[in-house]
Amino acid sequence: MAEARKFVFVSPDYGSSITENGCCGSGCCDFEAVVLSGNAKDLTNAVKQRYGALAERAGKRGLEASENKASDKFYSDSQCSIIPDEAAGASTGSGNPLAYADVVAGETILDLGSGGGIDCLLLSSSVGDSGRVIGVDMTPRMVSLARDNARKLELANVVFKRGHIEQIPQDETSVDLVISNGVISQSEWKHMVFSEMFRVLKPGGRFVISDLVTDELLPDSIRDSTGQWVEGVGGAAVRSAYLRMIESAGFVDVEIVDERPGPNGTEEWRHLVKSLTIKASKPLG
Fold first, then answer.
1. Strand locations in 115-261 (E)
2. Which residue among 66, 110, 136, 158 is least enclosed by CB atoms within 10 Å?
């Protein structure tokens, strides 16, 4: 297991203080309890605080044209017209994996870091009544928000679970497609995430993920900043290492299907950050 980095807890102002409590039930907190310690635990709590606060103001954010929402940047008008304002307001992400997912009716799809549920809600009609969409997120308030959004749309084939993407609360070989949008870069244990994705996918299953990577290693001050990790930048892996982790997990036919600049900013290192959308498959045998 990779050695935990030491983080400088420099968190942006996310509004009122939020306290996360308790375990979500059998198994889903094992990763946090066993693996995380010290500053790495602070990092996880910072991510929970940031996205818990975002869930609290998602409805208002969804109505504000001035807010920098992923739904405005990456999703079509027709897609945005389907989802509640609260789902749009909770969207972050670094791309639109749905554009490359080639979903088939009846499939079971897993969304890692599902947030307010935007991708799950949009996938509901694609999989149809015989399919299923499962969202997983570690932030209790995001899970609650996503469930509320699914109820508003009366979606019977969408469920949301609380859990860590490094220890997915899902049976092995039970999923046809895994998607994720701008979340894996926030994990310090990306190799565990890819291993878990491989585990839950059926033979011949596939993933489509959008995520941040870098062309070369970012300065220590960025990689050691909790605030930058929370934004998905500080933890972004170098592109070559990221692709090697995918292949080491067992995936084949790895393909970058979309590439664009990362989040805006004036810092000179910003040009090194890229947003990639990547497809890959689990072998049949």
1. 132-137, 158-162, 175-181, 201-214, 237-238, 252-261
2. 66
AA letter at 66: S
pLDDT in tens, 94-117: 788 999 999 999 999 999 999 888
Q: Spell out the long-range contacts of 144-149 with Cβ–Cβ below 8 A and sequence spacing 24 or more.
A: 144/55, 145/55, 145/58, 145/86, 145/90, 145/116, 145/117, 146/87, 146/90, 146/114, 146/115, 146/116, 146/117, 146/120, 147/117, 148/86, 149/83, 149/84, 149/86, 149/87, 149/116, 149/117, 149/121
Strand partners of residue 275: 212, 260
pTM value is 0.80
**CATH number among 3.40.50.150, 3.30.70.940, 3.40.50.1000, 3.30.470.20, domain 30-281:** 3.40.50.150
Least confident of 147-161, 195-209, 242-256: 147-161
Domain ranges of the chain: 30-281
Report the half-sphere exposure of 48 (CA within 13 A, side-chain side).
21
